[in-house]
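FORM 12-B: Structure-to-Sequence Request
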């Protein structure tokens, strides 16, 4: 990607963990959750009406976030396929994951999905519905197959939520539970997540005044968290500042000179498993300590790092764990 100055950033396509495709991630005003509320009704997902005539029995999750949401709801027996595993599956879901056929290492193509005769498709990323992947949701609608997409990454920028909110994530979990007729499981899952989130916020140290840089990937051109993404939301929840929250873009590409001007107090390192340039937390630390500019950052000189799983930075069932890890990390640094 081309290096851009932070003050003048344009749209940047962030490579999500293991993914080379991006969906829309603009600054639209739509923060409303998708409206899949009951099977047997016409429901809406990212502006596309779809009919779910009965609780699906042959569903396919097209990437890991969707897979883990479905498995968390106990839906392995309703799934005829999954794909695009970017990280080790959550240990609590590993046994159920083994029950679901893996259709492709990355996204399966349209023919591979069609061959499984699905009655429901689900993805939290619009790239799953690209022409070269499973194919557009509108085409699946013509075949009578509802295809759900998270409001955090609609194909159309104006329909994409401008900020990641925990209520929207929780509503998506309840949406999927409603589609499959397991509303009580959805309510319980969300209740448990809320308890964990409240505990993380309560236990975080107060009034630290810390300004954070969320460092996702890249070295020469670092990708950091701006406004609207999950790190921005979690920072506010826990009571600290995202040093780059004035940048109205979820994942801008920056440069070290301007980062040095802001000199964040703490750097949160995404630990990614995909093996790219600067992906792992260890690789990031080595770069930061060796780079002439980055090595002079106050956070680097004083070893103020917090390491979090990269996958937790996406809106998903893992999102609460990001707040938990940040809370623990700040407690270790500030007491």
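FORM 12-B RESPONSE
SEQUENCE OUT:
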């Amino acid at each position: 990607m081309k290096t851009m100055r932070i003050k003048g950033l344009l749209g940047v396509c962030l490579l999500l963990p293991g993914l080379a495709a991006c969906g829309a991630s603009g600054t639209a005003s739509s923060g409303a959750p998708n409206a899949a509320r009951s099977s047997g009704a016409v429901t809406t997902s990212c502006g596309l009406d779809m009919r779910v005539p009965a609780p699906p029995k042959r569903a396919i999750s097209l990437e890991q976030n969707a897979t883990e949401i479905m498995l968390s709801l106990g839906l392995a027996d309703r799934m005829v396929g999954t794909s695009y595993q970017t990280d080790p599956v959550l240990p609590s879901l590993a046994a159920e994951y083994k029950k679901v056929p893996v259709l492709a290492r990355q996204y399966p193509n349209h023919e591979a999905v069609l061959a499984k005769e699905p009655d429901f498709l689900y993805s939290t990323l619009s790239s799953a519905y690209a022409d070269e992947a499973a194919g557009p949701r509108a085409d699946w609608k013509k075949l009578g197959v509802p295809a759900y997409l998270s409001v955090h990454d609609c194909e159309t920028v104006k329909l994409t939520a401008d900020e990641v909110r925990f209520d929207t994530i929780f509503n998506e979990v309840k949406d999927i539970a409603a589609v499959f007729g397991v509303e009580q499981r959805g309510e319980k899952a969300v209740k448990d997540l809320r308890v964990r989130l409240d505990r993380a916020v309560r236990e975080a140290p107060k009034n630290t005044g810390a300004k954070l840089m969320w460092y996702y990937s890249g070295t020469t051109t670092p990708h950091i968290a701006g406004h609207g993404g999950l790190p921005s939301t979690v920072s506010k929840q826990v009571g600290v500042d995202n040093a780059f929250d004035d940048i109205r873009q979820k994942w801008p590409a920056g440069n070290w000179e301007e980062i040095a001007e802001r000199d964040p107090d703490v750097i949160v390192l995404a630990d990614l498993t995909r093996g790219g340039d600067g992906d792992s937390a260890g690789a990031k630390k080595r770069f930061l300590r060796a780079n002439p500019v980055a090595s002079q950052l106050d956070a680097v000189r004083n070893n103020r790092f917090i390491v979090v799983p990269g996958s937790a930075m996406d809106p998903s069932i893992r999102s609460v764990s990001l707040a938990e890890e940040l809370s623990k990390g700040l407690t270790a640094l500030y007491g």
